[in-house]
Amino acid sequence: MTNSFAITGAHVVPISAEEVDSGTVVVQDGRIVAVGAEVSIPDGMPVIDAQGAWVLPGFIEAHGHVGIHEEANGEAGNDTNEMTGPNMAAVRAIDAIDIDDEGFRDALSGGVTAIVVKPGSGNPIGGQTVAIKTWGGRTIDEQLISDSVSVKSALGENPKRVYGGKGQTPSTRLGVAKIIREAFVDAQNYRAARDAAAKKGEPFARDLTKETLVRVLDGELAWDQHTHRHDDIATAIRLSEEFGYRLVINHGTEGHKLADLLAEKDIPVIFGPMFTSRSKVELRDRGIPNLAAIAAAGVRVAITTDAPVVPINMLVTQASMAVRDGLPRATALEALTVNPASFLGFGERVGKLAPGYDADIVLWSGDPLDTASRALRVWIDGAEVYTWDAETHRGITVPRF
Description:
Blueprint: E1 5-12, E2 20-28, E3 31-36, E4 47-49, E5 54-57, E6 59-64, H1 102-109, E7 112-117, E8 125-128, E9 130-133, E10 144-146, E11 150-154, H2 157-164, H3 173-200, H4 208-217, E12 222-227, H5 230-243, E13 247-251, H6 259-264, E14 269-271, H7 289-296, E15 301-303, H8 315-324, H9 329-335, H10 338-343, E16 361-364, E17 375-380, E18 383-389, E19 394-397
Parallel strand pairs: 1-4, 1-5, 6-7, 11-12, 12-13, 13-14, 14-15
Antiparallel strand pairs: 1-2, 2-3, 5-16, 7-9, 8-11, 9-10, 16-17, 17-18, 18-19
Helix pairs in contact: 3-4, 3-5, 8-9
């Protein structure tokens, strides 16, 4: 049985079901087939006695740049922003990911088994994101969860600084909104012309930029909106309602100021990074307790390191600090697992321990929200990819190549 085993005797945290003391997780051919206290184990299946350890699904980094902003490679390893034009909807993060980036090894040490890699925030429209596993393939295509996740967009300081510095539009918040609005109007016109041509059986010239934005308008892709300040969050909501697309707020530094509005409209927030200085005006009201206030209003939340802004292995540490500052423990675990998987559109595969789900599993020395705990073993699709070596005090990853 390939990638088949059972973990027994662990404290099992399925996320979407009750925690189980001395529970069992059964994996067959890379998928979870059973979770619970009274679970039958097939004859001959390898058994891992995890007495005293905790078992959880792998965590999900909902907004990162691992692989496209490589660790320790300087400018040569930075492919985060294609800033030769303000509308880069046609570019795809998948085309720039180096799977041998050190950040992926860091991810495993922090129990992170999936990441949504996104272009940066230099453009009003930055490009297409991709959801991938953090280990397991020789090419990025072998680690793919979904290449139909979202389009990254940015409001606020970053795009106006980039293009204002070039003496181009947009140089103000007004200009940034104009670029986004015009792009969607062009996409609406493109869709109408394309559909009319199809009805008549006439040829039609494809435009990759407009086709991508049509997918946003049609609800196939979410709109990942980089926005910190409350006024930019209000602009993000205004634009999304004008064009009817599915909005996800990224960063949401001042989201607590509009939390009731976000909850009313069921707009999720990917919050963070939390371990940063107030390096620009937009971050003046930065604070870890803001996440608890957003969640208390009923907003669905996820947590981000914005890696490599904060090392990706610190994702769970940020969650721990948020719990210290008022975020309910259950909400913190959901923010690392089922929430981002759900609102970014791949929740049928990862984010929980349940039958039918990918066997992306982490064995922890204790409660992962206890900062003294560490990831001991990590499986992705049922294959063990990381092991903590207590003698050398280092994590060991299986070779890629």
